[in-house]
Amino acid sequence: MRKIYSALVAAALAPTIAATAAPGATPVPHHVSAKAKAKTKKLRLAPDPTGTHIGGAVLTNTGDPLPGATVFIKGTYVGTSTNQDGHFDLNGSFANGPVELLVSYVGYETQSIILQKPEDQLNVSLVPSATMLSETVVSASRVEENIMRAPVTIDKVSAKQVERISTPEVLAGLGNLAGIDVNSASMLFTSVSTRGFNTAKSERVIQLVDYMDTALPSLNLSPGNMVGIPELDMESIEIVHGPASALYGSNALSGVVLFNSKDPFVYEGLSVRLRGGQRSLLDGQLRYAHKITDKLAFKVNASYFRANDWIANDFNAQTSSTNPTGSPLGYDAVNRYGELDVTFAPYPGVNPELYGKRVYIPGYTERDLVAGDTTTRSYRVQGAVSYLFNSDLKLTFEAKRGVGTSTYQNLSRFRIKDLGTDQYRLELKSSKGFIRAYTTEDFTGSSYELTQLSTKVLQSKVNPANAQSPTYAQQYFGTYNGAYTYARQVGKQSVDMALASAQAAANATLPVAGSDVFNSLRNKIAQDNNPMTGAGQHFNSRLSDVSAQRSFVLGSPKTGLIVGAAYRQYMLGSGGVLFDDLDGKRIPNYEYGSYAQITHSTLNDHLKLALAGRVDFFKNFNPSLSPRVAAVYSLGGRNQHNFRASYGQAFRSPSQTDQFLHSDVGSFILLGNIGNGYQGYGFTDAKGRGYNPYDPTMKLADFEISIDKLRLERVNTYEVGYKGAILPNVYVDASYFNSRYNDFIGGVAFIGNLNGSRPSEAVVKSAITTGSGFNTPEARIIFVSQNNSQVVRTQGVTFALTYYLNKALNLTGNYSLNVLDRSNLPIGFRTYFNTPKHKYNLGVNGIVAKNLNYTVNYRWIEGHQQEMPFAAGEIATYRTTDAYVGYTIPKLASTLQVGGSNIFNANNIQIIGGPQIGRLIYLGLLVNVK
């Protein structure tokens, strides 16, 4: 068998390797499994109870220092990490007998050392390992366990792997892992999903930092890592695939992304990262942590990012557009906004040749509407203080603020300017449990919505001083009709020529983007957050969350129990702009739940069984029970072959906007749906036809619809998998899942009364035949969320392989299959699955010199159908290549970095309506001084 070189560790840290393929530093001392400890070297020294100092060096088996290795006293929070020379120092009490040190580093076997007395000349030698037998995770079961024996599919990305991610947003780099889909609505707004349903807002995956939800309380979505923590403070990232409500509750329908930050007691010193590159990129981060005493430590983090953002520029016709791309009648383009339309009917003065034809105003592009503000930027500041009451009881207080400017996509595209959150956390934690309380408050800054902005510009009066002045939209359609008539009757032009002449004449009546008139209207409307008159966005909501957990040993160490509970309260505020808080009072909402999990090991520790369940209660919905049962069977002398099987149920609660939305934009209104439901008329009948009042065969009664009050969305998932080292230097992680979704949450537009009742047929027919529109107290066009009755079925496979060939060349690859079963779905039913059937990654990494390492990853995404609330269509097959090279100068504690994402600048549009994600190359310097 090929020898595993000591330099293998640096290659194993490359981000292109499947995250679970390389062991990571254990952040808490009691991480090592009994099997792993039995095989670690134990060093015993002569007893001497005086003194407390423990120090020495951590080296490779060839004598090279290992900076960043962690050294813990087992069973405590007392620990540290090595400096750039591999040295460490800590104090430990010998009053209660010998002390056991656990020494670990990513890519090496964890070593246990038992000390009978203080020792400051320890030389600890770690042996490289391509397996993961000592690696642990906490997110899969909410207790620390060996990642090889986790009951569900899970990936882990170490701090060193994060360091080598070359995408501008760390979440975008997770797309290199099997089974994880990412999409970017802009440079800093990236969403993550597992197992399908990859929308631009990740509503089925929860994103946590130290178990604090990073979602905006108002919208229940995480804005990428824009308001999260800087990469310099990331100890690891753990990604749980599939349903996790049994332990995490609401919205852990498809997975969990957990960021673990660095403990100031362990990771001391100053770290600075500075990067600059294409698109005027400037990325600076700073972290400083200091242990004031053995009991008191603090850390501060700060980051600033700035670059020229990607701009969406797809000007092809939307699938909903009546007219095709380039039509002289105009058309509804994907990335032009506010394209109002009118269907000419037999009214006085309308040319009969235009009867029944739909004409669109061209609207304005994204670049027009942001008016030169194409810079994306963010800053994050954070501070934390930790105090050890004793070696196994730690109190932490944390405060942080994250603010960003970028572009977000949902029903429309939104330019979010200085949107952010303030977050505070207080946590008391021991090895057996925790009590945690945190609060999050969001704010919108000067954000605005592009469709409303363009629409309101076109609906502005040509002459504001004249009450009788037409709007630009009215002037456009009037000019179009008049120019067409003139071209046909006077100019004797052909129909096609007349249409082109009419379009050119009408276009000339609109304010030119960038002109004084346009800029004046744009600025006024963008700053106005009244939905009837402006496009400004405003919300300011608070989330308060309190949770606790305790673990127990039942009878023997082979049986464990954890119990926990959580309560969260929302206080929603928007001043009537987004929510139904028109009276100015915040809207309260709450949910709470409790959970338990019992685990048992049997058959000489080869079989691990786990049973978990959680019950949740809500203000607006019925209670929900989320069970999970799992088994892991391990084979081999070191349990290196692990087979897992699980069944779980999970749920998603409707978002706060699904429940309490109230946004009147004039032509239609968006409402929440937690009352008694709605009665109304849909826009199509069972045959997919729109209502035509002039067709005597069509009956309005055939368009009647009933919309029930919202319920929780649910999923049932079966999963089997294997994780193991099939050879000492070949690692495999494979899984298969099958899921069934019920009460799938979607949206519907219809004609109805605001009180939920059905309008009279006379009112509806009058609005249609006279063209007066549905903008009366009797009838409005309403958009609400609803549960679909159809069962949605999906299944998929993931396979990841890592081959540690030698120190200069290591190979990685993974493949993902996701299948949506449409056999039971009606034509036109939107699932928002948005996931390629086939996807794969190929990577190579290694060390070609003592301090020079590299990594390259090629990602291929098959073309697939996407259905977004904003637009629908086909995403073309795309591919991207990311690369990183780092050269470390140990004496300067510095690393010179060169990296790039999509280095060949391949076409890379990840979501319908989103921008093309182009090439971004950077140069950087990373300094770590302890």
UniProtKB/TrEMBL annotation:
Listed InterPro entries: Beta-barrel_TonB_sf (IPR036942), CarboxyPept-like_regulatory (IPR008969), Plug_dom (IPR012910), Plug_dom_sf (IPR037066), TonB-dep_rcpt-like (IPR039426)
Alphabetical UniProt keywords: Cell outer membrane, Membrane, Receptor, Signal, Transmembrane, Transmembrane beta strand, Transport
Subcellular location: Cell outer membrane
Membrane topology reported for the UniProt record: Multi-pass membrane protein
Domain TonB-dependent receptor plug: 148-256
Signal peptide: 1-21
Transmembrane residue ranges: none
Family indicated by similarity: Belongs to the TonB-dependent receptor family.
PANTHER family documented for this protein: HEMOGLOBIN AND HEMOGLOBIN-HAPTOGLOBIN-BINDING PROTEIN 1-RELATED, TONB-DEPENDENT OUTER MEMBRANE RECEPTOR
Protein name: TonB-dependent receptor
Species of the source: Hymenobacter glaciei
